[in-house]
Every structure is written in structure tokens, then in C-alpha cells.
Amino acid sequence: MATELRPGVFARLFTELDAETKKRAKTGLTQLALVVEKQAKINARVGSHKYGTPTPARPGTGPAVISGTLRRSITHTPVVWDAGGWTTRVGLGAGFHPPYGSNRTPSSKYGLYLETGLKNGSKYPFLLPAFRFAIGVPAELIWREVFGAGWRTIL
Length: 155
Prior knowledge:
The protein has helices spanning 9-43, 69-73, 107-116, 127-134, 137-147, and strands at residues 74-76, 80-82, 85-87, 90-92. The protein has 5 helices and 4 strands; from the N terminus they run ααββββααα.
């Protein structure tokens, strides 16, 4: 026998569903940001060399380590709700400077140059490849872990 729903039951159920979905989405996005951050740090260490010596990294691969400042500066912002939904940013933190060189270019600028192209046109990307890696299999696994196997992915 069918049961009649009282007024307000649908609204309460959908409010609860919305709150649970937002909570799970925040958890999943936090985990995904950590995967991107970890992979970017892996990508940002293609060999190593001393300051002022040629890099062993080839254009198109991630940069080589000189002091480790670039790798240490890779971070993510907390996941926050804004008008567009949950957001976070993975990138280079402010205030990191290498221990060498007279002009001491901050790692955030140096990282941008490596990612988008140096004066000679060579690129040593590490963030975009990390993002592309993360939206593959790790994103699907995180989505299933957070929402369960019954939920479809939107990526």
C-alpha cells in the first residue's frame, strides 16, 4: 500500500541529499588536489644539477632539481565553496626563493617560466602533466571511493 508523503518531506530529503553531496564532493576534490600536488612534485625533479651548470632535463619534460625550492613551493589551497561550486588551486606558493643567485627570482615566477616557456622557447612542464595524470585513473578511483560505485563520474 502506498504511503502519502507529508508536506515538507521532499524538501527535507533533498536538503539532506544536497548537504551530503557537497560534503563528499569537498572530500573528493581535496584528495584530487593532493594527487595533482604529489604528481607535480614528482614531475619537478627530472635529475639534478648544481646552479650554473647545464640541466640534464630535456625540453618537454619536467625541470631538474637545483636547490629543491621549486618542488617545495608546490602546494594547494583549501577547498572552498564559491559561486561556481567547490574550488581549489594547485600551484606554486608565494614567498619561496632559491638560496643562490643575485636576483633571486621567486619560485612562483620561475615555475611559470618553466611551465610556459623560457626566453629560448624551451618548456619544462610539471603542473599541466600532473593535472592530466590526475584526471585520469586517480580521479575515477577517488570518485568511486567518495561517492560509491553507484555514482557516475562527471569528468
